[in-house]
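fwd from M.: "can u put these together and see what the complex looks like"

so here's what she sent:
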Amino acid sequence: MQATPQKPVSSLGKFVVWFGELTTPSRLYRRGLWFLLPAVVWILALLVIPGLALVALSFAERGQYGNVLWHWNLENYSRLLGYGIFGWSPDTIFILLRSIWVAFVTTLICVVLAYPLAFFIATRPARTRYLWLALVIIPFWTNLVIRTYAWQMLLSPEFPFAKVAHALGIIPADGALYPSAFAVYIGMITAFLPFVVMPLFSSVERLDWSLVEAAQDLYSNRVRTFFQGIWPQTLPGLTVGIILTFIPAMGMFVIPDLLGGAKYLLVGNLIQQQFYSSRDYPYGAAVSLGLMILTLFGLAIYRRRGQGVELV
Amino acid sequence: MKRLLVALLALSSLAFAQKEMRLFIWSEYMDPAIIKAFEQKYNLKVRIDLYESNEDMVAKLQAGGVSQYDVVVPSDYIIPSMVQLGLLQPLDQSKIPNLKNLDTKFKSPPYDPGNKYSAAYQWGSVGLMYRKDKVKTPDSWSVIFDPKGTGNYVLMDSVREMMGAVLKYQGQSVNAKDPKAVQAAGKLLLDAKKSPRALGFEGGVGAKNHLVAGQASYAVVYNGDAIKATGENKNVAFVVPKEGATLFLDNMAIPAKAPNVEAAHQFINFILDPKIGAQLSNYNRYATPNAAAKPYINKDDLKNPAIYPSAAIMNKLEFILDMGSDSRLYDEVWTAVKSR
Amino acid sequence: MHRLNPFVSAVALATLVFLYLPMLAIAILSFNRTRYGLQWNGFTTDWYTRLFQNTEILEAARNTLVLAVVSTVVATVLGTLLAIALERYPWGQRSRGWLDNLLYLPVVTPDIILAVALVVAFGALRAVSSTFEPGLLTMILGHVTFQIAFVALTVRSRLQSLGRDLDEAARDLYADYGYFVRRVLLPLLTPGIVAGAMLAFTLSLDDFVISFFTAGPTSQTLPLLIYASVRRGVTPEIHALSTLIFLATVLLVLASERLTRR
């Protein structure tokens, strides 16, 4: 796999060879624009431009009745950094760190489970491959809240899982496996697994097995075969899968609430709280903006490091 | 000419027959039989959309719903804000003669003097749900907030109600504005959350599930949720602790740009009818604010202190008032409680 | 076909079983006599009969399906075009950076911010035309907005896995770009497109926040109904519906496999 070069190779006067095609740069750009514009215009119109209004909102103030007072100040941002009515408090930092941790563990577990699944599907005969893909994703077409309730039931004292855990001495008699961190992660996997499996599968399906066999010839160790022969080839899909899981997982709060006893606010809760019970839209906008900037920043770093990786 | 007029009249009455009344209401708060009766009486079709919190409803109205719904059911504390935000229109009281049926306590409430914008719907309170077979009947919030207490418990995942309970336990008002008092309440709540006896924060159903399954002995819930639970497990009971708790009164109101204002008024008047009001309360097991409906309420419900508390307890129940700019106080304390 | 280490296969199948466990629980719950609880109280098919009389739930189910299908189709088309544009055209370094950020924006944005932005956008559009009243159309528009990014990212990763060689070889053979796209590029991209579309479909089916802010009175969807009953308990009719949908999709998938075999 090669990274897409930045400029068309040009040694033919005004003509250019691009991906095997002989054409002029302007024709290329024009065609590219046709492909690009529909989606870009859509996102600009429905997200970016109205989003600017939200940026402005984060500098405003909450009025007496939950309305917005356009008095420009940085109050919301200082509150974001922890400076509240009672002086400085680390609550927002706790919330952020906890959300990152939950998202990180969730992503890790999902990645570990996604590889076997992706490989399993990719190694089915071509005829049944999409069947298996569909079978993997069908459970996710049941509403997440319903599935979470189902897990509440499965982890309750009457069901075998709790009884087994009790026999192993992990929980007291009559105890349940929820609310607990364990239950939360089960719920999160139930929500996010396909977000890693789908992109990973689309890369694994394209795997060059000859490279794997070459690696097997070179390394007697299975682990090294994996990391030298397989891992690099799946990197694009894996990267997308991680991004599509980690970021939404940071904003997730329904599952930690339902399966974790709602003991801790996560970033998603904090934002939700501002737009619902507190009706403090300016602060809510500030928290969201802070989160988004942080995430985009992290993404930029992640991608910059990734660009240096020499893909096989 | 005459035939044309008759045809036009027929067509127009047909058009009237298709008219809709759009109701935006809390889930499981309305008896389907009442809706059917209303539809038949006024020859209207009723569309119902549901919400789970006042803030959901306000957000929806602000997002365009203000011109899509005819009747909404906001709680007491949010009505002043809705009025200020221009989301409600005044009631035409000449179209609601049944307004006189309301109990004096619920007529012309402090947040809406003269029933200008709202008419009472149902009311209830927050309290303690408990397992009578596992623990003695509690009479104070100390079973939860006293570190020396025993028995697992579930807290309520709602800022004002939960903080209200703690504030009452500490002898404060649920609408306390003194930062020190609110902070002290927050500290106590944080300790309660961190105790090994705490199962966490839950909404109505979650708390009920824990209690019915026997994992917890106490839960902080609305009385209506507790009453529903007694249907599932005879050992569940409800009590309002002696220190008091928060009271809520839900109301019917009409959004500012409602499409069918006529039908909205008809509906409000219909609900305030004594027999209908009783049918409603008998269905959702909350208390009716309709004095004329009392004779038709289930006798057992009337005698049930969980639904109709004694006068002494009523004195200790307080309405939640919108704190306006002071709500930040409660926000920050709640955030602190939930992030440590 | 390459043989897979039996241990890996076992883990994969175990994960699959784990994913299907909740469905089993829901199926059990749908036959439970109790309205609210998790305790078993006797077998009954009442909830299924009640489901078919419950026009509200059935209408919500229909809306949810229409919404998901339409938005997925639109988003898949737009997302695939976007991915091809990003990966196969020589944009400069800086524009590429901006486009990347634009692509990630719907993923990075919290649901509620997306929803509020949409409300603002539709509020402004309503001044121009009344087709933007909250309703099914606004919901579709809203869903597509975040789905595009997920599809584009998935298809793009697939494009990155494909080398230049195939493109170049194909272009040597076929002079017409349109022919190339239809006969070579899209078939090669199909696993990525399908994977992206499935993701988009899943996202739409479960979406609550964005649907909440863009729905009108006549466009209630299942997630809205279900979230509304979170506090009071999900009615077993919903469990019955979930079980039926689940069985229907499994049967559909198996049937289509049978048919394509011939």
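replying to her w this: Residues 13-17 of chain B have pLDDT under 50 and may be disordered.
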